Structures are given as C-alpha cells and as structure tokens.
C-alpha cells in the first residue's frame, strides 16, 4: 500500500451500516459524476489489456511508473464502501462495480431478475472461455438480487452450486436469469440459468438466508 492508501484507510469513518451490506445512505446515480461510467469502462479495459499484455522490459518500467502515479491519485479519493460509487450506481452496468462481470438488468418481476451479461477478456478461464469462478460470481450477484426482490430484504449466500453445462464464451452478450424457487422462513432457494442464445451454459442452485436485524 502507498502512503496515500494508508491515509485513505485512516479516513474511513465509523461503519454506518445496519446489518447486511446495505448502507443507510440512499443509492444514487450521481456519485462519481456524469463520467463515472466512462471511468469504469477504462478500468475494465485496463484489466482486459493487462490480462493479454506481453510488455517488453522497457514498457514494463514505463507502465509501473504510470500505474504508481495513477494509484496514488486514486488512493487520494478513496472513501468508505457505503459511499463509493462502485456498487451504488444503479444506472451503470453491475451498479458500477468493476469487480463484477458487467450486466444490465432487463427484467425484474415475479419471475425474478433477467440481465444481459458479458464476460470480457479479463474473465478468461482458458481457450477463450469464461473462468468458472467468474460464472459463480455472476450467479451470486444476480441471485442475491433475485433474493432481495423476492423477500424485499437483505440476504446472504449460504451455499451456491453451479452446474457448468457448456463453454461460456467471452465478449458475447449472454442471458442470465435468477428466480426464487421457494421460500421457507428465512431460507430463500434461488435457481438460475445462463444462456448463450439457445445454448445453456450453466445453472445455479443456491440458498440465501434473510438476515436478522443487525446481522452482519
Ligand atoms: C440489489 C442488490 C443485490 C446485491 C446482491 C449481492 C449478493 C452477494 C451475496 C453474497 O455474496 S453474501 C457473501 C457470501 N456469503 C457469506 O459470507 C455468508 C456466510 N455465512 C453466514 O453469514 C451465515 O452462515 C448465514 C447468514 C448464511 C446463515 O447464518 P444464520 O445464523 O443467520 O442462520 P442459521 O444458521 O440460523 O440458519 C438458518 C436456516 O438456514 C439453514 N442453513 C444455514 N446455512 C445453511 C447451509 N449452508 N446449507 C443449508 N442450510 C443452511 C439452517 O439449517 C437453518 O434452517 P432451519 O431454519 O430450517 O433450521
């Protein structure tokens, strides 16, 4: 961590959340400003390019210096997780969270949540296919979304099983669907599918537990 990072971490205030991972602060579309989406896209491109880059020694030296300078500038703007744009910008793919594969929600209703999702170069597993872990990340997030829709409350994943049925391609718009199969008390049983066109890539079977008041 740089000195700037150390300073940023020290500025994190008392944790304002009230159970789960939902902040008191309202979800907004203006944190980070009107160009925050472009910023996120540039970060994603950086991740994509880094995944495939093979820089020579001279370029590595140059890139390290550029990235150090960039990281120092970014670290100076760090705030706590509850107020950062990443994860709260509902107008951007995956709520502006660049750690998630980008998806855009197309339907939210009694049948659950449907989204168009694209794994990118950064999500490479092998031979131009998505890494299975990233497929699980996608299911966890969209599954958690479907659980929240079904119970109108925050829940956490107790287990999540993925059946990998066929190769999940990169850089291809996919259809991800998650829905509440049944609810038993605090237990929300979520199912999900991931399709490339008509081809089933993966299926999810998961349990989310509704959090009690104040539960972390
Ligand atoms: C719109 C925004 C959308 C955002 C989406 C974001 C989604 C991201 C979701 C996540 O990634 S959360 C992070 C990953 N998950 C965790 O870190 C959870 C870690 N585990 C825990 O915190 C607790 O184990 C958990 C909250 C899941 C459950 O603990 P509790 O103490 O609240 O529940 P309890 O142990 O009393 O169990 C309640 C019921 O669930 C059952 N249960 C709990 N864990 C189970 C399990 N693993 N398998 C089967 N059943 C399970 C348990 O048997 C019991 O059944 P009964 O009511 O019938 O007796």
UniProtKB/TrEMBL annotation:
For this record, the Gene Ontology CC terms, alphabetical, are: cytoplasm; membrane
| An example Gene Ontology molecular-function term | hydrolase activity
Any GO BP: fatty acid metabolic process
Q: Where is this region: Disordered?
A: 1-33
What SUPFAM superfamilies does the record tag this protein with? Thioesterase/thiol ester dehydrase-isomerase
Q: What is its main location?
A: membrane
Q: Which domain of life is it from?
A: Bacteria
Annotated Thioesterase domain residues:
128-199
Q: What is this protein called?
A: Acyl-coenzyme A thioesterase THEM4
């Amino acid at each position: 961590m740089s000195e700037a990072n150390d300073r940023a971490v020290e500025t994190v205030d008392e944790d304002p959340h009230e159970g789960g991972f939902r902040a008191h602060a309202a979800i907004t579309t203006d944190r980070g400003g009107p160009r925050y989406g472009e910023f996120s896209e540039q970060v994603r491109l950086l991740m994509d390019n880094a995944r495939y880059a093979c820089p020579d020694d001279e370029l590595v030296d140059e890139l390290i210096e550029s990235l150090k300078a960039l990281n120092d500038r970014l670290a100076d703007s760090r705030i706590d997780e509850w107020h950062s744009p990443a994860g709260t910008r509902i107008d951007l793919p995956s709520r502006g969270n660049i750690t998630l594969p980008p998806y855009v929600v197309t339907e939210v209703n009694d049948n659950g949540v449907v989204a168009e999702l694209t794994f990118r170069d950064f999500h490479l597993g092998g031979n131009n296919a998505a890494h299975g872990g990233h497929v699980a990340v996608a299911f966890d997030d969209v599954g958690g979304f479907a659980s929240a829709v079904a119970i109108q409350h925050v829940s956490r994943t107790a287990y999540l099983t993925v059946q990998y049925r066929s190769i999940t391609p990169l850089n291809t718009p996919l259809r991800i669907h998650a829905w509440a199969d049944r609810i038993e008390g605090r237990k929300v049983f979520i199912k999900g599918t991931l399709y490339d066109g008509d081809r089933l890539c993966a299926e999810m079977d998961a349990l989310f537990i509704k959090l009690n008041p104040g539960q972390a």
